[in-house]
Structure formats: structure tokens, C-alpha cells
Amino acid sequence: MNFEFSADQMQLKDIARKFLEKEESVKRARKVLEGEESFDQDLWAQIIDMGFTATAIPEEYGGLGLGYLELCVIAEELGRSLAPTPFSSSVYLASEAIINFGDESQKQSFLPGLATGEKIGAFAHNETNTSPTEANISCSFTGGALSGTKIAVADGDVANTFIVTANNGTGVSLYLVDGSADGIQIEPQSTLDPSRSHASITFTNTPATELKSDWSDVLCLLDRAAVLFSFEQLGGAEACMDMAKEYAMGRYAFGRSIASFQAIKHKLADMFIAVELARSNCYYGAWALSTDAPELPTAAATCRVSASQAFHECSKENIQTHGGMGFTWEFDCHLYYRRCRQLAANIGSQSIWKDKLIGSLERANQI
Amino acid sequence: MDFNDTPEEAKFRKEAYDWLASNAELKEGPKDSWRASSEEEGLKQVKIWQKKLHEGGWACLHWPKTYGGRESTPIERVIWGQEVSKFKVPGGYLEIGQGMAGPVMMMYATEEQKERYLPPMATGEEIWCQLFSEPAAGSDVAGIKTKAELDGDTWTINGQKVWTSGAHFSDYGILVTRSDPTAPKHKGLTFFFVDMKSPGIEVKPIKQISGGANFNEVYFTDVKIPDSQRLGAVGDGWKVSLTTLMNERLAVGDASGPDFEEAFSLARGQDLNGKLAIENDSVREKLADWYCQQSGLKYAKYRNISALSRGETPGPQSSITKIVSGNKLQEIANFGLDMLDSAGIVRSDEEGAEQSMYQFGFWGAAGIRIAGGTDEILKNIISEQVLGMPQDMRADKGLPFNEIPTGNK
Predict the structure, then answer these.
(1) Which residue of chain B comes nearest to A246, CA vs CA?
(2) What are the tens digits of pLDDT across the range B221-267?
(3) Across the interface, which of A249, A280, A361 has its CB nearest the CB of B264?
(4) What's the CATH fold of domain A121-213?
(5) For tag attachment on chain A, is the N or C end more exposed, with fewer CB atoms within 10 Å?
(6) Which residues from chain A sit within 8 angstroms of residue B312, using beta carbons?
(7) Tens digit of pLDDT for each residue in B54-74?
(8) Are B377 and B326 in contact (CB under 8 A)?
(9) Residue range A81-121, pLDDT digits in tens
(10) Which domains are seen in chain B, by residue range?
């Protein structure tokens, strides 16, 4: 059995980790949070130089043609370091939508730019404060043009390529919009995690092309992205566990390190348990994604739920372990707490994924 | 990343399967298992099967061949375990001897003793138990009081052990005692092996909360043990005990009982307020949580196996198994009983009655969360040994054992 990343993949992970540490990615996330910029352009440029955005894009479209396991290890490190860039929107969602559902001309027009970072992609899906379904998506596509409003589009204010879900009268499909097209009105939205920008986008008779897809392909795109988002969540969760431990070791109360109190030790043990379960499930997701396994819907929902739970557990208990200091702006705990919420919301809530998980097991009758 | 065997592993797997196929019966389904009509009958069948294993060269895989083992690698043990689980073969009774007493004998007994005691342990002819816990020494097992006094070259043992599995059918036991009550807690212990038929040993079953009796109390009244049966130096008993405690934590694994599959299948067939339970959102959320826990443990195990396959030491992920599975079992048992509404509390003697499985889990989970290291002790181990956090402050540190405050309530 070889249920582990290869030595080369682990080396890539190590390179990504050291690079993001050296570039002080967490400090940059704070800078974006406190500043006016939507993302860290310098870090983004370096990430592109490292080839990370090109990882899973086929060589014939200007990518590196590496596999999804490589993308998973990079995602874990981007999550660990809170990298304030449009990576997830552009790579896990937009590039993936075109790779999987685009025709030859769409691939040739968009993938090389997404690989080199010249193009930034975003996925415009949500419209209201309920989870999108095939029935409630009101954005419409008729006569080659899109109309409707999408909200909370991650990186919507900086993207120049949009993947949009819309109803064409017979069902919901994915549509591809070039950012230079007419009829796009973008309003940045303030969110709980300003280290990642969001916007509402109104399309008014905006020219668009269809990606050959239906609602089940929308769900498939979300499944694939879920594995990669899970790795970001896993990295974030582990970072919180490490922060909490380090702080507890050095913080003294009642004449001793608070890391010697069982109340704190057991809290850390609970975080460790959550992280190990999430890591193991993420590996399952990575295997399913990289081999196009029929179990992908189950594996994706499993790792998504598990990693969301781990990040939630670790980011909230990290604040708790820090006590009052954890509630200050100065400490980094809140950056992770914010990111945890952002990632948990980005491709659908916990309840939705749990429901999907049981639904996929019912269909597969995996009993 | 794949789930495939290396060529050597595949060869070993085939060899194991082929031998099993010609010596045992395949299970009819995943939940089909060997069951004995009584403990006596089970013991008899286990001994017959173990003899067969030994003759086929499949006993005590990890042991040296000299003592009846096979000198297998850790990954081969895993593969054997996977293959044997496909067959309906007798199990139980021998694990404590082969998993805990065996390794400690190999480390501390004389060559002559090893040659005398290890082969019958491997063939299943002689059964061993472990005499560690006491009424006042559970999680703090170094706090044992059973007294050992040396006169000439014979020790006299007085005291009481508790939670001893299989004491009533064991031939020998490994025993930790207090030989010097004036030394600090961990320093005054001495370790022996003892003939369970020795005069002065009395074994009494413990009635558990479930009504069953899987464990015993063992009383020692002036029991004589020759000094030649001491394992390790006088006063070194704690060091010797650690060898077996580490093995115990590896041995106590998954909690047995209803798991996700059973809860899922129950929910798909059970009416809840006029609809199928599976259509209820809170039921679906719970099921999803258990599926994720079960899957996490499964793939953590695969990560372990992968490390073994590469000849590496597995990472710390195995330390979470018992905590997660014990708590999951308790929740699933409670869920199952809840789904059956008032019928869930009714006892049934009917074979395969739905509530029986959940009732079994209801009691079993309460036990598994304590056995072989409580949830709390395991969390201490994770935080101290995996995460490197400091030990708790100890009120008894450095005190002579007989001056440590006690109270057994």
C-alpha cells in the first residue's frame, strides 16, 4: 500500500512552505486585511513565478501538466500561511471549470492566461442568502448573453475571467465571461475576512459562452474544488494547533506553563484528533481527485466536512488558548478565525456538504 | 498514491490467503463471525486453531522462529490480519500472552525460561494473563500496593489485582508488585511471572454494569514466587511494565459494535414521525459526522500501513483510534436505541434482534473508553508524547510511597 504523497510531492510541499514563510505570507494577509488592496500583488506574482498557478493545467495549454496531488500539497501550504491571493478562485474553480468543461477554443483562449496568472478567474454562483440550487438560480442566459446578479463572489473585484452559473430555460449550466465584455458591474463587498476580497457582480446582457455542462457538472466542479479547499483548511487548522501549542508552552499562570494544565493539554489533544482525521480524509479526497475515481463525490464531501470541522475546532480553540491576547487585533488568531469562516462559506456550508455526503452514499449504496 | 501491494507483499498475501483457504472457512459476509457457545467451548476451539496455525508456520508472526514465531515484518502482520479477517476463525484468549507477556519474557527472562515458556505460548497450550491494575491503581498504575517481600530466594506476595482478563483460565501471569514502600512511587516496584495454580491465589469474577463478567479480581495471600521468576532488577518493575503497557495500547484498537453502516441502514428503513429517518436532516447530519470519523480512522490506518510498507515507523495518527471509535460507538448506540423509541430499552433474547446490537454497544462503549488507557490518559499521552507538552504537576513526586496521601473513592 502506498497511501502517501511521493518524495517529490513532499519536496514540493516543503519548497512551498519555506517560500511562503520567507515571504511572510501571514504578515501579508494582515496587510491586505488592514489596507486598501484587494490582494497581495507581489506575492501573487511570485506564486506565478513558482509555477503554482500552472500546476494542473495541461502542457498543451501552457501549464506544467503535473497532477492534482501536487496541487493538493501546494493548497495545504497556502492555507497554512493564509496567502492573500486569488489562487483558489482562479485555480480550483475557474481553471478547473475550463479544463473539465471547456471546448478547444475556450481552452486555448483562457488556460494559457490562467497558467501565467495574466488572467485571474472567479466563480460567480451565489445569488441570495440561501445555498444555490438548480431551482433557485435566477441569473439567466438567452441569446448569447447573461443577465442577473451574483453576490459574495470571491476575488470578483480583481478577476478578469468569470465562470457564472445561469439558467438557460432548460436548466443550469456554467458560462464563461471575459472581464472586458460589456454589461459587467462590480461592487466590492466588505466581508468577515477582508484578507480575501469579495464582490457582487451584476451582469446585464453580458456576452458569454457556454461551457458544455449541466447542473451535475456544476456539482462535479464543486466536488473537485472541495478537495483542494479542504487542503487549505487542513493547513490552516494545523497552523492554529501549532500556534496554540507554542503560546501555551511559553505562557505562565499560577506559577507554571499553562501547557502543563490538563484543560489546555486536552484541548490540544482534541485539535490533534480533528487534524489527523481531516488529514486522513483529505488524502482520500486527493486520491479520488487524482485518479478520477467514481468515489469522488463521497470522498470530496468527506474531506470537505472533516477539514471544515478541523479548522473550526482549531481556529476557535486557538483563540481560547491565547485567552485575552487571542481577542486582540494585534495577535494573528483572528486572521485564522476569519479565514476559517471564509473557506467554510466559499463553496457551500457544512450542512449542505453533510447532506451531499449522505446523498452520495445513498446513491452509491456503499453499505 | 495507490492502495496496491508491492510484489513482495502480494506474494505474502497470496501465501497467507492460500493457507487460510485450505485450513479455514470463508465468512459469508462482513458481519459473519466465529462465535462459541460457551467460554469453555471457545477456549477448546482456540487451542485447536492455534495449534494448526503453529504447525502451518503462522503463529506469533512477529516472534523469533526459535520460540515458535515467523519473524515477519510489521507489514506482513498487517497483511495477515487483513486476510485472516476474511475467514471465520476462532479468536481471543491468547492475545494478552502473545502480545504482552511474550515480549516482556523475551526481553527479561533467562534463555532457559524463554525456551520453556515461549513455545507453549505460541502453540496455545499455555495461556497467560496480566496482573497490573489494582482497586486503587488504575490510570495511575504505578500506585499499586500488592506487597512483595523477599526471604532467602523466595518472595511472598500479598495483595489484590483487578480487571484481569482471563485469570480464571490462565496458566501463568505477569505480575507487578511493590517491593519497597519506602522508595518513591516508580522506584519500589518489582516484576515477576507467576504460576496461576500457586497456592494462595484466588480468582473471583467481577460483575460488570452490563451484567456480564469478562474480568476478574485476583487475590494473593502468602503466594510464594522463587526469585528466579523475577523479570528485571529489584526496584526496576516500572521500567519492565512500560514494555507491556506500550504493547497494550497498540493491542486495544477499534471498538467493536454497530458503526456507521448499521446506523445508516437503520435510518434507511426506520420510520421517524411518519417519514423515513434518513429523510430527517438532523439524522443526516449525525450520520455524516460518523461517516467522516470512520473514514478518517480508516485512512489514518492506511497511512500507517503505508509507512510500515516502506519500512518506516508509523506516525502518531494511530494514537487517536480508541478515543474516536469509543466515543463514536457510544453515540451510535444511543442513536440506534433512540431510533427504536421505547422498544430500544426492551431486552430481547431473540437472535439478531435489532435493539440487541445497540444495547451491546451501549454497554461496550462505556467500557472501551476506560479499558487499556482512559480517554483522559490517552489525551495526556497525545499532548505529552506527540505534541511535546509538559507533564502535569504531581503531588506525589519524590515522596516515599508510604507517605503519599491515599483515598480510594
Answers:
(1) B389
(2) 999 999 999 999 999 999 999 877 765 554 445 567 899 999 999 99
(3) A361
(4) Butyryl-CoA Dehydrogenase, subunit A; domain 2 (2.40.110)
(5) C
(6) none
(7) 999 999 998 999 999 999 988
(8) no
(9) 999 999 999 999 999 999 999 999 999 999 999 999 999 99
(10) 7-93 (1.10.540), 128-250 (2.40.110.10), 253-370 (1.20.140.10)
Residues A210-229 as b or e (16 or more Cβ within 10 Å = b): bbebbbebbbbbbbbbbbbb
C-alpha distances in Å from residue B394, one per residue of A117, A226, B185, B389, B390: 58, 46, 11, 15, 12
Helix (H) or strand (E) run with residue A141 in it: strand A140-142
Question: What residue type is B131 in one-letter code?
Answer: L
Cα–Cα distances in Å, from A352 out to A133, A234, A296, B139, B339? 11, 19, 16, 42, 23
Give the pLDDT confidence score for residue B247 in this predicted structure.
59
Query: Domain boundaries in chain A?
Result: 7-116, 121-213, 216-364
Instruction: For this complex, say whether ipTM is above 0.85.
Output: yes
Give the fold, CATH level 3, of A7-116: Butyryl-Coa Dehydrogenase, subunit A; domain 1 (1.10.540)
Element spanning B217, H or E: strand B215-226
* DSSP class per residue in A310-325: HHHHHHHHHHHHHGGG
> What kind of fold does domain A216-364 have according to CATH?
Butyryl-CoA Dehydrogenase, subunit A; domain 3 (1.20.140)
Q: Do domains A7-116 and A121-213 have the same CATH topology?
A: no
pLDDT tens for A305-352 read 999 999 999 999 999 999 999 999 999 999 999 999 999 999 999 999
Contact A262 B380 (CB under 8 A): yes
| Gap between the Cα atoms of B312 and B308, Å rounded | 5
The whole-number pLDDT of residue B251 equals 47
Residues of chain B neighbouring A262 (CB-CB closer than 8 A): 376, 379-380, 392
Shortest alpha-carbon distance between residue A110 and chain B (Å): 30
Beta-ladder partners of B364: none
